[in-house]
Amino acid sequence: MEVTVKEAANKKSSLRFPSLPDKEIRVKGNAKYQKYDIIKQGVFAFPTGPDIRTYEWDGYLWGRARKKMSTIHTKWLDPKSVIKKLENWRDKGTVLNLIISAGGGINVDVTINSFEYKKFGGKGDYSYSISFYRYRPLKIQTTKDLGIDKKKKKTTTRTNLKKSSTDKKKQTYTIKSGDCLWNIAKKFYGSGADWKKIYDANKTAIEKAAKKYGHKDSDQGDWIFPGTILTIP
User: Fold this and answer.
1) Which pLDDT band, with edges at 50, 70 and 90, does 153 fall under?
2) Hey, which end of the chain has fewer CB within 10 Å, N or C?
3) 232 — phi, psi (to 5°)?
4) What CATH superfamily is the domain 169-232?
């Protein structure tokens, strides 16, 4: 298993955790409810949609004296440099791509919700706890996006009506390791905010792949898997 985070806007800026999380990675997701206290009837709760999904774990950053320990499964990194990078991402609210290559795998855009650490022992070791919030961009649609721009006149030309056979061919894309719908949408549309177009057009294939890899569902495209062929609408 490997745990890596990369800046969504700059893939060259990344961090591969030198030591694996201690014991487990906790994924939490709850439903949100709106509560109403009705006189003489009590409290009623109505579901309003999913709450923010979180990904969290505890771990260790080993000091230089322990750089050859078997628990360091990748290149040893100075704990101070790791802490500085994570704090910088947390404080700036940087959007990151979290990739965990284990089991069905996790490949999702996140921001760091909290990061705490403390030094212990006399060999420069640190223990830490980190929590990520799943990132979902908010797209504000204009009247133009909704197709209700009153000033725009409807015009058609013979050229527009005549589409070549090549125009009618649908584009496809095969998911590769490290992909997420946000980045695929950015590749084809220039904006990751259009990820839901791809999800809606490929919902059956995406959900089928998620179940194949042991998930109840894809959590609206959070879990996608290499080899799945997508149609780009």
Assistant:
1) low
2) N
3) -95, 110
4) LysM domain (3.10.350.10)
State the CATH class of domain 3-33+46-134.
mainly beta
Q: Which residues contact 16 (CB under 8 A, 6 or more apart)?
A: 2, 3, 4, 74, 75
pTM attached to this predicted model: 0.58
Give the Cα separation of 172 and 188 in Å (integer).
10
Closest to 86 measured CA to CA, from 113, 60, 120: 113
Token pair belonging to 104: 């069905």
- Domain residues of the chain, as ranges? 3-33+46-134, 169-232
**pLDDT per residue over 108-119, tens digit each?**
899 999 999 999
DSSP lists the bridge partners of residue 43 as 37
CA-closest candidate to residue 194, choices 147, 232, 229: 232
